[in-house]
Amino acid sequence: MAANLLRAARASAWALLAAFGLFGGTARAESAVDPATLHKDIREAVLRVPVTVQDAYGRDVAGNLLVTTFKPNGPGPFPLLIISHGRSSDKRSEYGRQRFESAARFFVRKGFAVAAPLRLGYGELAALGDPESSQSCDKALYGPALIAAAQQIIAVAQAMAAQPDIDGSRLVLVGQSVGGIATVAAAASRPAGLMAAINFAGGHGGSPTEHRGEPCQSMKLKRLFKHYGELNANANANATADAPTPTLWIYTENDMYFAPHHSRAWAEAYRSGGGLVDYRLLPAIGDDGHRLFAAANDVWQPLVDEFLTQQGFTQPGIMKAPPSTDFAPLTDVEALPLSSFAAQESYKKFLLAKPPRAFALNSDGEFGYASGEDVLSRALGFCQRRKGKPCSFYAVDDKVVWRPQ
Question: At the top level of CATH, which class does the domain 2-310 belong to?
């Protein structure tokens, strides 16, 4: 009973803090990052956001979150989207600056400013403490871990909303794995401006090696998801609408952390609590569908594009290859509009790659090619990242699509 009361008290305190904006402090630019590594075409930048949270034992954990941001061109104001990363307990000190570049480019094309924080307990912040630890498998303490993660997400949202080119009244939260369930937890408090939330393979306590597909204490997670649905369904003073927040949950048949019967039960529990959920179970992806957010952009982007369009974000994010032209035969390297040795050698490598593949260039002599997954976005990114000058496609798959300006 005492433990339940403690958890309820913490949940209430968390909701109040979220409502009144008492997390963190003023964001500041990060000067230690080499500007040459930042992609100019999507206005990549790095900020520090100070936060303080508590771990499962009530101990304060404080630090300055390293937040990577991306923005569309123009003055804004832009709607805000926050991407929250997952968790690897044994490798958390190895985490680097979070970027999710392919996903970020998709969301920037849809008009969003994107923020991807590295949370407390990971990477350079690992030595400060691990507030997202569930402690043990047989006595998992998920509630405090997810409160701590959700607080950080909300702190980043508040810090970003203070920028003049951000529209804080249009907020979307996205997360993968532990970041996915943390996104659902953050959405439960209905932070200011929240319009939608997207959960990719969300959960906690999973291990593909020790208990494949069977997370620790799954029933505890089910009860938490129901509680989050109840909280979200009860609009508070910050809510932008009386109806529950629309959420999209995407899982796969071969998730090595959370088997389908768990994710399906969690979605049903969230819905039974009053939450609004669109649950999608996708076919197997690769060796482990748990990685769908990073490894299957071509699969999830159409689903997310449709979902966000329904929420009023109608600017298209999906890229389509231009139609073929009769400019030159695909294998005619000499016809390439760039005559530099480097460009022609790169095009030869493009020709050796198997489709899907794409090659892009611009009049400044920049070029880039990609093969495999998300090729259109990646090829343009490789071409445009240094100077930010737009590039156009020269060839896609087995066709030349170049149109001379």
Answer: alpha beta
